[in-house]
Design a protein that fits this description.
Distance between the termini: 87 Å
Number of helices: 4
Helix content: 55-70%
Shape: elongated
Strand content: 5-15%
Strand order of the largest sheet: 1-2-3
Radius of gyration: 43 Å
Structural class: mainly alpha
């Protein structure tokens, strides 16, 4: 790490160079002047505070460099936003495609209730005879027969389809 100090017409500017990255450290007042801000009140205790702003050509170069960096990072941000939007669209498209496939496989299959009228009769009988459910044996038997017949029809249909 190196350091240097300069005294010109009663002003003292201290610079310290960081050995690792070649960074030059300057005082806060120097930074304020570079940024075009007002100086802080002069203190007799701190001789490193500058007395006047940087020369105009240095200030213009600084501003030009800052504008250049700002444009560079705006371009990087715009590029990152475009990538993000493209990734979002791709992800949304893939999600929609997967959702459509699932819907086509599982959700589109509609089942017609079987023996619905007999099921309703059993439910009504149980409601009418809450303590005497054996009185509903005839309705339950008819419902079970209907369900068994529907099951056999489905199995028969599947066996015919698989033989084809």
């Amino acid at each position: 790490m190196g350091g240097s100090s300069s005294t010109t017409a009663g002003r003292r500017i201290s610079l310290e160079q960081d050995g690792e990255g070649g960074v030059v450290k300057v005082s806060e007042d120097v930074l304020r002047r570079i940024m075009g801000e007002e100086e802080s009140p002069k203190s007799d205790q701190d001789p490193t505070r500058p007395a006047r702003p940087l020369p105009r050509h240095v200030d213009q170069r600084w501003k030009a460099r800052m504008d250049e960096l700002e444009d560079h990072y705006r371009e990087k941000l715009r590029h990152a936003e475009e990538k993000s939007a493209a990734f979002y669209k791709l992800t949304a498209d893939q999600f929609q495609k997967a959702a459509d496939e699932v819907e086509a496989k599982f959700l589109k299959q509609r089942y017609v209730p079987i023996c619905e009228n007999l099921q309703n009769e059993v439910a009504k009988c149980y409601a009418d005879n809450p303590k005497q459910t054996l009185n509903c044996a005839q309705e339950v038997k008819a419902f079970n027969t209907c369900v068994e017949q529907a099951r056999m029809n489905v199995l028969l249909k599947r066996s015919v389809e698989s033989a084809s």
